Amino acid sequence: MDALNPQKEIANEIRAQGADYVMALKDNHPTLCNEVQGIFEAVREADSADGSIRRTETVETSHGRTETRRCWSVEAPNWIPGVEGWRDLQSLIRVEATREIKEQRTTEFRYSLSSLSPDAERAGQSVRQHWGIENSLHWGLEVAFNEDQSRVRVGNAPENLALMRKLTHNLLLQEKTLKRGVKTKRFLAALDEAYLLKVLNLNPSDS
Question: Is beta strand 22-25 parallel, antiparallel or unpaired with respect to 55-62?
Answer without folding.
Answer: unpaired
